[in-house]
Design brief:
Blueprint lengths: L2 H13 L4 H16 L3 H6 L7 H15 L4 H5 L1 E4 L2 E4 L9 H13 L7 E5 L5 H9 L4 E6 L2 H14 L3 E5 L11 E6 L4 E2 L8 H4 L8 E2 L6 H13 E10 L8 H6 L5 E6 L5 E7 L2
Length: 281
Amino acid sequence: MTVKQLSSRLRDMLAAKFDAGEAHAIERIIIEHCLNMSPVDAIIKADMQIPDFTENKATGMAERVRNGEPVQYVVGHARFCGFDFKVTPAVLIPRPETAQLVDMITDRHSYEKDLRVLDCGTGSGCIAITLARALKFPEVTAIDISADALEIARENESRIGADIIFRQKDILSLDLPGEWDVIVSNPPYVLESERTAMESHVLDHEPHQALFVPDTDPLRFYSAIIAYASSHLAKRGSVYFEINPMEADRYSSLASSFGFRHTDIVTDMYGRKRFAIISRQ
């Protein structure tokens, strides 16, 4: 079988579940992973013969994706802000909205040096590691309650090349000393009542601990972080959140109750109220 034939077979396998564009994107990820070929290489080497074991590996991966497993978990990594992060079901798959959150931080702080940064609920480490690589000489600390997630984050730190201080901590009982110039978090924010509207590949594979909050206390993690920030955020510092658009109107009053004068709600690439930036000034 040639590279071209394998590509066609993978798309045919995926066509029953995904539209043509998504099937092609998944096929490219599998081809790149199994053959170590970029999309351009796959075109140039379209007639190259591939061994049977590589064909079987690729079609096996396509079958797993067809059966509902996220392709990022199948290949074991996900692309985020130009880096490949190892991912397993112990961590959430990084999403484009989170990359937008990171871009906002790097854009606003691109000229500052030696910032102290705290990432709350780091998961795969994608936010902390990307900021450590993008900012000028930052000191980055990242926390997570999950030991399994921290193990993945440390692997990503090593393979991508960054210098992060990792701590196993619960956001709901933050007790780290010192002041921070930037506090960032993409905490659990999906309401339990939203489960029925979510796609099965998320519900069946991604960690629920990192996704859901009770409908009766949807801002529990935000409240804990803002309370901590009220005494540990530097005078000119900012808190950056990814948020649930359904609760967007509640963040300003929550921040005000802890003495923060300014809350900026920012829309994502789809026009949804997805981010909150909180500061004293």
